Every structure is written in C-alpha cells, then in structure tokens.
Amino acid sequence: MHIDIITVLPELLHSPLHHSIMQRAQDKGLVNINTIALRDYGLGAYKQVDDYPYGGGGGMVMRLEPLAACMDDLMKKRSYDEIIYLTPDGETLNQSMANGLSLKHNLLLICGHYKGIDQRIRDVYVTKEISIGDYVLSGGELAACVLVDAVVRLIPGVLSDEMSALSDSFQDRLLAPPVYTRPEEWRGLKVPDVLLSGNDKLIAEWRLEQSIKRTKEKRPDLME
Ligand code: 6GU
User: Fold this and answer.
1) How much distance in Å is there from the Cα of 33 to the middle of ligand 1?
2) Which residues approach ligand 1 with their CB closer than 6 A?
3) Nearby residues of 158 by Cβ (< 8 Å), 6 or more positions away
4) Of ligand 1's atoms, which has the minimum distance to the CA of residue 137?
5) CATH number of 167-223
6) Multiple choice CATH, 2-152, 1.10.150.120, 3.40.1280.10, 3.40.50.880, 2.160.10.10
7) pLDDT tens for residues 124-171?
8) Which of 5, 86, 135, 142 maximizes ligand 1 atoms within 8 Å of its Cβ, making it the mutation to test the pocket?
C-alpha cells in the first residue's frame, strides 16, 4: 500500500508513524507512508497557504491553489483509490471503514487546519471525508495518524499471528476480554484459574463469555 499525506505540519506526523508496528510495516515494505509539506506549494514569498474567509467571520481557510497544485503533482505519479479529507464533519471512523481501506492500494490523505479547506477542493478532488469522533481537534494530523494506524495494522503481514487483528475489540462487534500476565498473584488478586489450565477449549469459551459480559456492560450499543 502507498499512503500520501498532505500537511502543513509534517513533523507532527513523524513520531506516530515511525515507531513500533507502523515502522515495522514500512521496514517490511508492506506500506510506504509519505508526507508532503503543503508549504512547498504555498503562494508568494511567504509561501502562503491560507486566507480570510469570504463572507467574514473568524479563522482562516486553506486556499485551494496550493492544495490543487500539490494534488495534481501527486496524481501524475499514481492514481488514488480514495482521496480522504480528515474533517470533524466527515463520516465517523469505525472498524469496518478501516477494514475496507486496508484493502486499497493508494490512499491520499489531506489534513485540514484553521477553519478547513476551500469547499471547491472537497467538491472536485475529495472522494471520502472522515472524522475520528465527535470533538474538534486543532488540525487533521492527529486524526490522520489514527486513521493510518487503524488501517495499516490490518494489512496482511503487518501483525504477527500472535497479535492477530481478528481478536481485537470491535472486529466482531465484541470488546476484547480481560488479559493477564505474570505474576500469578498480586496483592491477593489471582489470575483466573482457567487461564492457567492449559485447556485451549475452556480458555476460548471463557474469553468469549468475558467478551460478551464486557460488551453488555460497557457498550451494549455494539450488540444491538
Ligand atoms: Cl478528522 N479533524 C479535526 N480537525 N478534528 C476532528 C477530526 C478531524 N475528527 C474529530 N475531530
């Protein structure tokens, strides 16, 4: 998979995308993640990328010329399966969207800032608008990191079998069961006997039971 991310703050994306599983996925050649500094396409001596909104009101709007020039350059090199604009008014990200996106080959992400991007870019270029929840962030960068992480870990080969994405919370509309590691006893609290039993069938049954219990308690909406 190839992911291009257009941003005014490339440094903000660096750390989350270059550690742990995200870095390993890139090292293994399973995904290329490329950030493009929108400022390089900025207008005039000050490399301007934003301007006052028509109609007045507070905040700035990202101008369309730098974004269009940047995207036209990128689109000469590859055709994108989706051009995604990260925005609080987009469709809320969930596991099934992440599953769908993990099957794509080329993704282009646009991180908004200020009051957002000129509507005409959304009308002409953007194929999908995604939010990561009902709250407002200062920019789309953190949301882009969340989206990329959720998608990249689903690419076959990124997770080892032991880490299998199939046992994650949400993958089957159930939350993951409780987990334990050493020591067997701590402050009088013991690891459930079944997990020490060595009986795979009993362990699987216990985990499913716990998943159902946890989902009923914490997120009954997932079970419908
Ligand atoms: Cl994608 N962007 C911003 N700026 N805020 C958000 C968001 C995105 N998703 C939730 N809040």
Assistant:
1) 20
2) 86-88, 131-133, 135-137, 139-140, 143
3) 21, 24, 25, 28, 30, 31, 152
4) 5
5) 1.10.1270.20
6) 3.40.1280.10
7) 999 999 999 999 999 999 999 999 999 999 999 999 876 777 778 887
8) 86
Question: If you search the block for the tokens 């941003």, which residue do you land on?
Answer: 7
For the chain, the structural domain boundaries read: 2-152, 167-223
Contact 110, 83 (CB under 8 A): yes
What is the position in ligand 1's atom list of the atom closest to the CA of 138? 4
- Given a cut of 70, the residues of the chain with pLDDT beneath it are 162
The predicted structure's pLDDT at residue 113: 86
Strands 61-62 and 82-92, by their bridges, are: unpaired
* 128 SS3 class: strand
Q: How many Å lie between the centroid of ligand 1 and the Cα of residue 32?
A: 24
